[in-house]
Amino acid sequence: MNLHSVLCPTDFSPYSDAALRYASLLASESGAKLYLLHVVDESAAYCTEYTGMGYMSDMTQRLEHECQELLEQVSPTVPGVPFERQNLLGTPARTIIDFADQLQVDLIVIGSHGRTGVSRMLMGSVAEAVVRGAKCPVLTVKHPPVVSDEEQIPKGITIGAGQPT
Amino acid sequence: MSDWFGGKKLLVPVDFSEDSIKAVDEALDMADSPSHVHVLHVAADLDITTPGVVWETISEDTQRKNVEKSFSKTFADDKYQGVVYHVLFGDAGHEIVEQANAIKADLIVMPTHGRTGFRRILLGSTAERVLRLAHIPVMMLRH
Q1: Is the dihedral of CA A3, A111, A77, A62 positive or negative?
Q2: Does the ipTM surpass 0.90?
Q3: For position A156, what pLDDT does the model report?
Q4: By the CB < 8 Å criterion, does B4 face chain A?
Q5: 36-95 in chain B: CB under 8 A from chain A
Q6: What is the pLDDT of residues A53-80, one digit of tens each?
Q7: pLDDT digits (tens, 9 = 90+) for A5-14
Q8: What are the sequence ranges of the domains in chain B?
Q9: The domain B21-141 is classified under which CATH number: 3.40.50.620, 3.20.20.70, 1.10.10.410, 3.40.30.10?
């Protein structure tokens, strides 16, 4: 398996950060180009912030613009890796698969949970659909089960079932 | 194909299907040395109603020997020299993940389909279970 291009879809979650670290490493070691893809889920425009009468036409554009700004902050974790950012509009899984197809990427590296992955389901819906639908190998990366600094649980709060009350 | 997975331990579950043997070849490409590649076959639990069990002609021991024989036959080529083999019994998906934990593997490499799982389904049942249960990265190969 020779790597010329690696696709790493991101949804700006810690899960996709873990995938990005892996993808950057692989791209750097094999001299491959890294594609950082974010898909703006258009359906979010129907339900984000605006809860009034339904669809707002400029909401999609606003989302796209904001996601573009977020995407600008995402870079390979290994310096010197050639990369390209792409912000697309569409259904996440479908768009990722089609993008991989069009560019004939050699590998997709994806976090096994994204923002939409309910952890009790053990695998995110987007990751699952990508593994099912992609024509190329897919590397799924599970975010290590550690709490990051920003997500520190405040003192005095215990999490867990069966706490005596 | 040098050292993407330098020093990493790779677990490749095989069911002796063509795709799973290809996965072993790909893992050998990725790994530093064949000794970093662990090949696992999970045999189905022997049921009391399995014909051979009733007549006591088959047991876990004989089945293990058969699998080991298949290993040496399938992976006879020199390039497989040094690969580590494992045989387990039970549910394939669970055992693969358990074994990955037990040997502290860094990555599981497997095809999306083995012998079971219909082609028309886009992801085999074992692959799906491994994806869901594994805590380490999983490389799904599509052949």
Answers
A1: positive
A2: no
A3: 47
A4: yes
A5: none
A6: 555 667 778 888 889 999 999 999 999 9
A7: 999 999 888 7
A8: 21-141
A9: 3.40.50.620
